[in-house]
Amino acid sequence: MMPPSQARRNEAAQAALPAPHRPSTAISPGPSFDCAKARSMPEKMICSDAELARLDRELGWVYARAKNAAADGAAFRRQNSEEWRRREATCRDRECLLRWYANRHDQLMNILQGQEPAPSTVSR
Questions:
Q1: Is 0.90 topped by the overall pTM?
Q2: Which of 28, 55, 108, 121 has the fewest CB atoms inside 10 Å of its own CB, making it the most exposed?
Q3: Do 106 and 118 touch, CB atoms closer than 8 A?
């Protein structure tokens, strides 16, 4: 076991690292939203699946960066709402959610790279 003073130094050193280099052990295992408020089938599936929850958290980080990088904030919000409604209306199984997360991630990365978001390819 590590002495308490060494543990505090390690924690301080990790906190000083830029976010991408910090260990992920301090990150919550759930999705980016409160599972106690999950109502839809897709939300409940995300809350009950560790991989989907991880993808949701990661998408939340990319979303925050893309939101700040978006040239037109109103258009970004409209497109985001449309994609969320598409997920809620079409995804009834894990495979659909996996495709939706991959597609949405690509769309947001395009925004970060200064490109137009690609159209959604998720369907039933």
A1: no
A2: 28
A3: yes
